[in-house]
Amino acid sequence: MNKSRGYIIQGIFVLVAIIFSVRLFLxxxxxxxxxxxxxxxIIQEEIEYPFRGLMYDRNGEILVANKAIFDLLVIPAxxxxxxxxxxxxxxxxxxxxxxxxxxxxxxxxxxKASLFIKQISLEDFSKFEDHLDEFSGFVLQPRITRxxxxxxxxxxxxxxxxxxxxxxxxxxxNYYHSGDYIGKSGLESNYETYLRGLRGKQFKIRNVRGxxxxxxxxxxxxxxxxxxxxxxxxxxxxxxxxAEKLMKGKSGSxxxxxxxxxxxxxxxxxxxxxxGLLSGKNFSKNFSTIKQDSLKPLFNRALMAAYRxxxxxxxxxxxVAMQEGVITPYTRFKCNTxxxxxxxxxxxxxxxSEKLVGAIKNSCNPYFYQVMRKMVVQHVEDSPxxxxxxxxxxxxxxxxxxxxxxxLGIDLPxxxxxxxxxxxxxxxxxxxREWKFSNIYSLAIxxxxxxxxxxxxxxxxxxxxxxxxxxxxxLVKSISNTGQPLPIYTKKHYAGVDSAYFEVAVEAMAEVIxxxxxQYRAKLKDIEVCGKTGTVQNDPxxxxxxxxxxxxxxxxxxxxxxxxxxxGQGARAAAAISGLLIEKYLKKDSAALYFEPYVLKGDFE
Amino acid sequence: MxxxxxxVNQLDWMTIILYGLLVLFGVINVYAAVYDADxxxxxxxxxxxxxxxxxxxxxxxxxxxxxxxxxxxxxxxxAYPIWIIxxxxxxxxxxxxREVNGAKxxxxxxxxxxxxxxxxxxxxALALAxxxxxxxxxxxxxxxxxxxxxxxxxxxxxxIAQGDAGTALVFLMFILVLxxxxxxxxxxxxxxxxxxxxxxxxxxxxxxxxxxPVVVTMALAIYLNRKSIKRAALIFILxxxxxxMYHSVGYAFDNLLKPHQQNRILVxxxxxxDPLGAGWNVTQxxxxxxxxxxxxxxxxxxxxxxxxxxPEQSTDFIFCTIGEEQGWIGSMLVIVLFxxxxxxxxxxxxxxxxxxxxxxxxxxxxxxxxHFMVNIGMTIGLFPVxxxxxxxxxYGGSSxxxxxxxxxxxxxxxxxxxxxxxx
Lengths: 605, 423
Known about the structure:
The structure holds two protein chains of two kinds.
Chain A lengths: L1 H29 L2 H10 E6 L6 E2 L5 E13 L9 H8 L3 H14 L5 E7 L1 H8 L8 E11 L5 H4 L2 E3 L2 H6 L10 E3 L2 H5 L1 H4 L4 E7 L5 E4 L15 E3 L3 H11 L4 E7 L4 E8 L12 H10 L8 H4 L8 H12 L8 E2 L18 E2 L1 H6 L3 H12 L7 H18 L21 H7 L7 H4 L13 H12 L3 E3 L4 E4 L12 E3 L4 H17 L14 E7 L7 E8 L6 E7 L8 H15 L8 H6 L4
Parallel strand pairs in A: 2-10
Antiparallel strand pairs in A: 1-8, 2-3, 3-4, 3-5, 6-7, 8-9, 10-16, 11-12, 11-20, 13-14, 15-17, 18-19, 19-20
Helix pairs in contact in A: 10-21, 13-15, 13-20
Chain B lengths: L1 H9 L2 H21 L15 H21 L3 H5 L1 H18 L10 E3 L2 E3 L1 H17 L9 H21 L2 H5 L4 H7 L5 H18 L3 H18 L4 H28 L2 H11 L10 H11 L27 H33 L4 H25 L17 H19 L1 H6 L1
Antiparallel strand pairs in B: 1-2
């Protein structure tokens, strides 16, 4: 009997051997997760951050460059016998913060590097660098942040900062890692994929104490960082600087376009901020200060603010009415202030009967009431309601061809489209009740529901300067990989109005400057400027001063739209600024800049 | 001369070959375990564990030869004195030894250090064999049973007192020997059952899942045995005892085990709970072995063991090196070699006519089995982490020489089994 117990014992031995064999088979052959875990243990990915592409102005001056900052990383397993108090003193944190940060790093990994302090400036870095060898477990990793040659163009350039969780979740190709910098606004955001370059990666093998033991698979998977593409912007640095100087202390915007190309020479949104504030260590602090500013410096008025177009819109109305054939340049309407109010006086008393050019020059509201009525009420239907719908939609299609009513598609994020109402809009607004021309006539003079964005006004001015077409306004002249702007910016867009009618508009705009009331502030010696005032009603606050202009009349080089909020008549602030900008751009250093003190003083009396 | 020829012919070469293969495979892996590509010291350098292990192998061979050349009868004659000497040494160690890793188990004489507890295993095996082979020994006799418990438990208690609970647990395996020599299987069954209940109690979170099967089985068993009130009562008591034990485990666990021992058991049950702390050893050990795959990463190409992710990689966790570098194939080779050796030793024990030799043989098998089971079991997450070496593989002179002694005394007894018969 006891002999058989020998077999039981042998059976136990064999049973254990079988259990082990099966368990090992499961662990080693069937379960792959341990292989991954083993690689995670030893492989440490080191990232080499690429240089972000630079930004130049149209003449090759550097606007945005890179500067190095340093992140301090910690590998908890390597911390050994360091003088914590001394360390904290050098990097400027308390021992309590040190403990908390170390604890957090340990929770992530003992053997992998975690971020300890981010964005140490070059100055702080040099203080600390010499002592780094005393503190095992701490390493400095260079990062790239932005530096700016001039404190201008903040809104258009945009800024970069750490990628958000939401942005990470949208990154389907997994290009970004948590902690990476990404363009958040302006050109930095719009040209992110060109500017960012390609991250270099090195896979290092490390032992449990984090000591490097060579390259993973002899560096088979390692890659070098590739710098991002640089972009040459369309901005004229000197003009931009001057435009910002003129807008100092004011709210509003300036857009200056080269009509023959659609290139934006200058784009200002005031008030603004110095772009350097949103770069580097103090980003968070500065960002919240800027964001909380009640004047909204981060709000790019040039493309985000929608205003009623005001009298400037009379040029647009003239063009589409001539094209539609409802008026000719010789059509006269009486200045009948029973229809709508007018600014009578001087050469334009009540009851005058102007031709088109005169009506534009004197900004005659009743004239354009009649023009609009002819556009909308074409008697194709018996019902005045149905007739108004057909007329309004025809008008709407004309206006939209000029680039109004929808974002133009410039190469900056956040552009607004404004509003050009159509019949559906009023059907919704009147909730099924009927409407006809008498309900919507204020559209005629650029008031009512019309909303336009400053960039659209600048684009319209360029269209008039070109006598009928425009290129979409854009801020990048060439990207270094192709030497070209993005293809959509080399396509001509026609406004759908014959160039002969544009000559009438040009003539009228030239007259406005020559002999219109008070527009003398935009008049320049030796340069024939064409322009139009706009005074945008802004009850109960003071009116916005608006002016569009281009020059010279023949072969125009610059088209501008200027908005100065709450500054009263367009003939004052905006006209003066337009004149100064045109003169500055065309005459450079020999510009007389007669109205500069008037603009800088800023009360516009 | 003639006697030597006779001895060579009588030796069980199968065992010696298995022993040799294990030792050889062992030292090769000790070299791999601490291999450092940056270091220039070679295989035989004494600055290297493998070099030292080679020296230990040399000593082990000398010890083996000495054991074989001595008169086989002295192991019987000196069984008690040897046991007493090591008991005394254990006491001496406790008084004089320095504490290493929480245990006072190293005796230092000049440059040499050794662990008496390692050698107490074969001393106890000898004493047990001597006592059980007494002419009128009967395990069922209370006096005999008591003496057996003393022989086993005195060294056990002393080793526990040294703080080396792992090594002490080895002595529990003598229960297999006693089972073979006629002891009732009940203690064995109860022991295994208790261990299972213990683990279940820690593992099962909802008591309902434990109660239901136990109560249902009990009710069914009582129903089937309803004719015999005595049996039904016994079943009821058994069931009640199981549930009672189940509910007392929590108390025993919290009060009888040290925190690090509690951790080791909890980690076994759920290694992912604290992978960087208490679970580090088991997690890293499994990663090393698991990443070996079918054929392994290749000799000296292991990363987890080389880069010190696995702790104690040349001693207690030597199996990780094999698992990582030699894969499933290499692991199986170790398991097959060990199982073959265990079975061979059992067969040798069975063929002894002399009870002393047979009991000793089973003791050798049981001790080796325990080390094999617990050591490999812990590296693959089947046993709690108990710091005992893998025989013949783990780096360390005391353990190698003690296992060699253990095996070669059996071979000496076996080689002379015919003479004993004639005797």
